[in-house]
Amino acid sequence: MLYLALSVATALALPRQIAALSASALFGVTQGFLIALLATITGCMMTFIAAKYLFSAKVAQKFPEKSQTIHQFLSESTFTKALIIRILPLGSNFLTNVIAGATNIPFKPYVLGSFIGFIPQMVIFSLAGGGAKLAESHEQGALLALSGIALLLIISLVIKNKAKKKLSKAKPLSI
């Protein structure tokens, strides 16, 4: 029952951190983590699908250039970009899902990148919800590690993009 409630709540903008805290407070760290993680990814999928079917045509019609720009950006290396967005949660989970769904990016890599990217922060908040006292140095270390991972992923995307541009600019050989 909590799984369903949290799925709907995260689909409607409940922060995933609150889902992890509350589920772990009620069911302990391990079970709470699993419930919150699965509910969060379910909520992510629900919002993505709703946005795709309810808003994509309207968004494309009202903001054609911005919609196309976002679609082009997120449709390449979707898994990695979703992973980065989720590891470094700098914005609203809900709005990210709405934008992703409304711009018709690929569903599977987006959801898989989101799922894996949710895990680190969900672990931290599940531990806190389960009563574990996280030392400030541990929190800072986790943040630094996650930032480092995200930075490496960003660098790999930049290198991949530069290589792609270089290949597209290369002139074909004449025979």
UniProtKB/TrEMBL annotation:
InterPro entries in the cross-refs: TMEM64, VTT_dom
Keywords of this entry: Cell membrane, Membrane, Transmembrane, Transmembrane helix
Leader sequence segment: none
Primary site of residence: membrane
Topology class, membrane: Multi-pass membrane protein
Coiled coil region boundaries: none
Domain VTT residue range list: 14-129
Pfam family, one: VTT_dom
Membrane-traversing stretches: 33-55, 110-129, 141-159
Location of this chain's protein in the cell: Cell membrane
Family listed: Belongs to the TVP38/TMEM64 family.
Protein name according to UniProt: TVP38/TMEM64 family membrane protein
Organism: Thalassotalea algicola
